[in-house]
Amino acid sequence: MARRATSKPRLVLGVLGAVSMWGCEPRRPLPPAAATNTAPRLSLHLTSDITALRVGQPVDVEAVVEDAEDGATLNASVLWVASVEGQLARGARANLVFQEPGEQLLTASVMDTGGLAASASLALTVLARGAPVATVTRPAPGSVFNLGEVLGLECVAMTEQGVRLSGRAVQWTSALSGPLPTGDVVRATLSVAGEDTLRCTAVDPATGVPASATVRVTVRPIRAPTVRITQPEAAEVFVKQGEAPPHGAAVRFHATAQDFHAEGGPGNLDGAVEWALAPSGRRLGRGPALTHTFTTPGDYAVTARVVDGLGNAAVDSVRVRLVTNLPPRCEMELPTRESPRLRQGVPSTLRATCVDPETERWLAPIWTTNVEPTPLGSGETVNAVLAVAGAQVLSACAVDPDDPALRGCVERPVRVIVNTSPSDCAIQAPLPEAVVNAGVPLALLGSATDAEDARAGLRYTWVSSRDGALAHGPSTTTKRLTMPGRHVLTLTATDPWGLACAATVAVNVNGAPEARIDAVTQGLLDCSRGPCVEGQAVLLTGSARAVSPMGSITELTWLDNLSGNLLTVTVPPLLTATLAVPSAGRHTTVLTAKDSLGAVGRAATSFTVLPPGRAQLLSAVPGAQRPVVAMAQTADGLRYADGASPWVHAESSAVPRLAVDAPARSLFTLRSADDEALFVGTDGASLHRCVRGTCTRHAGAMLGAAVTALAAWATPDVLLLGTRHGLILTRASDPSAGGRAGTVGGRRLLEGREVRQLVISPVSTPRHVTAWAATSGGLAEITLWEEEDFEPGLATVSVVFHTPPAVLDDDVLSVAVGPEGQVFAGTRMGFSALGQPGPALRNAPWGLQDEEVRALHFERQHAGSGVSRDILWAGTKGGLVRYDLTADVVSHFGTEEGLPDPDVGALLVTSERLRYVGTAQGLVTYPWH
């Protein structure tokens, strides 16, 4: 306790003494205060290119630190942190490797010894392995647009290999307006006002890895006028001097515009479209269309601008690249535009062609889709299995042989589906157990549903258990029920891949009366066994009886295809008729019997009437004992091709034949006021244009296959070339116009379909041309509109395909068109008018052996007194068929009538009404009705 007590006073005294001493000493100056600490400064320097920074790729970074007090000692204290991956490294210099793809903020920071800090940040986009590099180059950040204004979008997306992505590999979206058109260079409109973000997402098809880029724009709530460039259709086109349209340096532009604040609707601003050329800004013209020729290689933007009545403007543009080396030109044949669906997990046939425009060299396309990481295959034709279901884009691309960075592609949006069978097949008419009359039109009505196909995409067939095939289509009629008794009618609905459902209904048929023509005589001569003679009466004798016990014959009618109605009686049994003065030709006489129940039966017989001194109806053309596959009438007379030799033969021995470079396959004559041109298509993928005996050859990769059909029209100047791979539109006056001499230029249509026959409708005009094409994929209706500076390769064209039930079969072999534009199609199942059933050639009363119609020709015959008769001539492998459209009567010509061979493949009726029939073994004429 004592030590404690003693120590306290000592401590207190010491402190007090110290205080006392300080207070007694004289005042001295204070020591200098410590210097003020200044914060460091830090800036970032990149020694590596980060525009294509990828996961796992090292990048060198450097932080430059400046500090007045600590100096360079702070370099070791710099800390590198990423917003996604956290702390990465220490030190002013670092080598960083990112492991996570996406947008990251890289920050470098440092703190000095006085506790003050500095930092700097850098926004990075780290690409995944295999991802492309995407950059939005149009529009510029901060751009302002009006609602509905057309704006140009461009996204440059490059793969790791330096290949620029295009087409469906580049997708655009708007944060406000949603999905936008796809492609690296596109035109779009925005439908929602506000601050918007446009995003470009590119997917490398080789890796399946995406990358994105964005740009901010403002959309004003002002309804702008609209202007849209409709031609060229693509937002970017490549052209070259010396090439034919649509790849030539002379480019045709069309635009349409609308002022929403004025009357008139779409197109009311077409006349106010102002065209200009960028980058020069040079004015090109005013109006809805113009043609401009580019002369200097380079990239150009052609703009169409309009201003509405309120002063609001709208602009659309298309990029034109005048190059010295065009990218490969690719065309896809399968799948077609009209059937862009494929089955998942099942081999699908894909077919495309790619050609180098400069060398005409064929290139093997590489097939990809935008949803699968690996190519589907390589080659013109591949059988590929698509593993991913849903909407996707199928591409066939080829690399230019002289520039590996230049690619040409063709793309087709497709849908890959898991196919299921149609269901709910039902028959609405006829009703169950209905009683119907034979030979009388019966309405057939049915339906079905399918998860993948619309009703129109299903094929409907009607079959009787006793009479066989009846009709096609969900709603149709038939007169083919003939046998008496109970029939089970079956409706089968089949989808495009062969899956089907069926429904049945039972009906009772009042059988057709049995009608029979027993004899055709001319005196003692039996006309059914040999020809009769012109000018002497022919007696026809027949018989008829009712099949039903409840019925009786109430009416008999005799009809002759050349003489018309002979006799109609209502009080049997008058069963004879007389041809008082039969004309020369092939007669078919029909006896029609009707019973008291309403059933109708027919019988027919054909016989020949010859003029005195003739042995046969058909006359052989001298020197033409060879196959005939095509014919054309020229100023020198008839010319024909045999399909086997490189010659165009003439009917007259005095006219020299024309030499071509390959077997001639198709012919067409185009007449003008000054001259005529004979077009010759060959099996050697060439076209010859012959004028006054001199032929000019045209070929090139645009053809690429045998020219199987031809048709031409003088005004507008257009030539249609049908091939085994589609149709080409070019100039009739010069198929090489605008391009290299002798190389066909123009536009392709009907890709993937073989064109068998072409006919231009007689109702076509200089402003509007309609052509019909018999193809392997249906009957194609092609419409062209004439425009100022008409160019077939750039023409406005529409194509409509007619398939069953509008025609009897998908595989259309021939086509004919009447004077008023009525259309007839020939198939392997017979012929018919478009949208109507045709005669059942194999069935009674005709009973023909063959109904594959490979040639058709329409003829209107004038019999005097203003009476005309419409005749359809059909060539089959089993002979020549004459069908009287008015009387519904079929007549058959075979070898007994003078055909050198029953295989008829070509038909022609001249202006002098002389009928030429080309067969597998020669050419004959038929001068009679």
Total helix count?
1
Helical percent range? Answer: under 10%
- Oligomer category: single chain
**Largest sheet geometry:** 5 strands, mixed
Percentage beta strand: over 45%
Q: Averaged pLDDT, please?
A: 88
User: Termini separation (Å)?
Assistant: 156 Å
Task: Sum this structure up briefly.
By secondary structure, the protein is mostly beta strands. It is built from one helix and 76 strands. Strand 28 (366-369) and strand 29 form a beta hairpin.
Q: Would you give an account of this structure?
A:
- It is a single chain.
- The protein has 929 residues and is mainly beta.
- 2% of the residues lie in helices and 52% in strands.
- The chain is built from 1 helix and 76 strands.
- The strands form 19 sheets. Strands 9-15-14-11-12 form a 5-stranded mixed sheet, with no helix packed on it. Strands 17-23-22-19-20 form a 5-stranded mixed sheet, with no helix packed on it. The chain has a 5-stranded mixed sheet with strand order 25-32-31-28-29, with no helix packed on it.
- Strand 26 (347-356) and strand 27 form a beta hairpin.
- The chain starts with a helix and ends with a strand.
- The model is unreliable at 1-28 (pLDDT under 50).
